[in-house]
From TrEMBL:
NCBIfam families assigned to the protein according to its UniProt record, in alphabetical order: ribosome small subunit-dependent GTPase A
One GO BP annotation of this record: ribosomal small subunit biogenesis
Known EC number: 3.6.1.-
Protein name, per record: Small ribosomal subunit biogenesis GTPase RsgA
Top enzyme class: hydrolase
Keywords noted in UniProt: Cytoplasm, GTP-binding, Hydrolase, Metal-binding, Nucleotide-binding, Ribosome biogenesis, RNA-binding, rRNA-binding, Zinc
Listed GO CC annotations: cytoplasm
Family from the record: Belongs to the TRAFAC class YlqF/YawG GTPase family. RsgA subfamily.
CDD domains: YjeQ_EngC (cd01854)
Amino acid sequence: MSHDLSRLGWDDLFASSYRPFDRSDAAPARVLRADRGVCTVFGESGVSRATLAGAVLLAAANDPVDLPCAGDWVVTRRWPDRRVTIESVLPRRTALIRRTSDKDATGQLLAANMDTVAVVEPIHPEPDSARVERLLALAWESGAKPLLVLSKCDTSRDPDAVVRQLAELAPGLPVVAVSTRRSAGIDHLRTYVTGGRTLALLGRSGAGKSTLVNALTGTAVMPVQAIRDADGKGRHTTAYRNLVPLPGGGAVLDTPGIRGVGLLDTAGGLDRAFADVAELAAHCRFGDCGHGAEPGCAVTAAVENGSLAPRRLASWRKLHHEVEVESARKQSRAVAAAGQRRRRT
Ligand SMILES: Nc1nc2c(ncn2[C@@H]2O[C@H](COP(=O)(O)OP(=O)(O)OP(=O)(O)O)[C@@H](O)[C@H]2O)c(=O)[nH]1
Ligand SMILES: [Zn+2]
């Protein structure tokens, strides 16, 4: 049986980046799941397991972000003994990357080629504004369109009030309230996967991501675990990331439950996640205004007249500082690496 890959988002642009690799034993496929060294891929002939070719391993030795990840479009090759290998990863249009640890220069790739990233925050226990802002910055950074999803709305007496409150953290973005218990908001979420588009779910462990995947597919494909009710913490974490093709076309991508999210060294996502602050800052008298005691600061003026929440400015400052530190770190690492190369030659 031949599957129509356009239902999974394959289009002319991906086809043209595939063309140089085209040969009789090659075929395009999308990575559903990436484990160490082996990927589950979906191609025209259906699902198969594929190992990584030398060229892919070599590229990844320099930067692990080059390893295939759920959502990637790849070039597969079928060998005479029926083995399948991944020969190349086609250029990604979007990528969700988080900083792995304070020491680490590289990031961890969570998902690729999604059109929309839904930051999923549960309404119970109380939503964590700082986490939502952080995840939204990461979502913006990916290049895909962010969306805020408030999950488990059946547990709140007044979800609309929480939606209004959280909308302030997501200026200009849609906020969707969902409940899988009541099948509320699921059809709205489904509008993000029409036309073969991919929706990635990003959120803490226990936010209800796997349950949403199941609601969208109408079957149980992701394991959902019991949860400790008192603190709402999930007892398990989805250990792998999974791209799940949906029966009506499109796909949903579950990412592992995220505990700490480090931002990489790019401020672009942050400025977009804090579009309200960035917009105000454009009106400060000085271009390099630190929004402290400077005269003519539009940001502090907005806090004083009540149009910008002080909390909002504080979290913007905190994340900006983090990005600056990371950026400086990256620069000194680059200098050190260049020094090492010079000594070696
Ligand atoms: N009341 C209520 N509970 C829900 C809802 N959706 C999910 N849950 C519960 O929340 C718990 C966690 O759900 P999961 O879907 O496993 O959460 P997850 O985000 O996938 O968690 P990780 O896999 O750890 O990242 C489970 O006990 C679900 O039954 C909902 O709409 N309402
Ligand atoms: Zn200012």
